[in-house]
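Notes from the 1:1 (GR / supervisor)

We went over the backlog. Supervisor wanted to see one worked example end to end before approving the batch request, so GR pasted a single chain during the call. The sequence is below; no edits were made to it. Supervisor asked that the structure be written out right there so they could see what the output format looks like.
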Amino acid sequence: MNDHGIDAETTRPGYRRVLLKLGGEMFGGGGLGVDPKVVETVSRQIAEVVASGAQIAVVIGGGNFFRGSELQQRGMDRARADYMGMLATVMNCLALQDFLEREHHLDTRVQTAITMGQVAEAYIPRRAIRHLEKGRVVIFGAGVGMPFFSTDTAGAQRALEIGCEALLLAKGVDGVYTADPKIDPTAEMFHEITHREVLERGLKVADATAFSLCMDNRMPIIVFNLLTEGNIARAVAGERIGTLVSTPET
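Structure output shown during the call:
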């Protein structure tokens, strides 16, 4: 048993269809623009998942190019700033699509919540499901297409609408901690925790809207370190990595 009363040897069930949420900041390697090394690492791990027979969709943030909330603080209209952020996510989607197709010869489709027919399909849930059933990787861009909603919320909403079994939150840390482990060296990691406890403790994992959506619909979330090679495939296969956030049946 670990400190939180969870048997560390328990194996989680594998998943048939998942949604992977990637932060834009990670795509930029901590800087502005796209870091090819990070995109290659991510695309290689996604290719592993596809080779295993599982279906994977992806939502990417745009923070490596643009953050609407920061420009709002400088006086820009929030809605306009958010739309600019949505466009930034599409650049990341196209970068990932290129690496998946060119380096790993995978069939992919980019679907966007804002119509831009020359570079991507419009978001149509049933079409996205059909792509997944055919073994294609579907990459969702432009968030949910509305201001005031984060790409975390887009990840939760898309995962629910296309029938995913889990939402994978890829981070730069190993899981959910009692505090920020980069600041507090005494922070402890949870192996399992409930959605409600994350919200009540105010743990900074994803925004509250995304967590509430998952809690209300019992969508499990796995929070794990993207930078550990092979972690995406391990999460999909049900290996015990990171933190499992779930709501038990009542």
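Supervisor's comment: The two ends are 24 Å apart (CA to CA).
Batch request approved.
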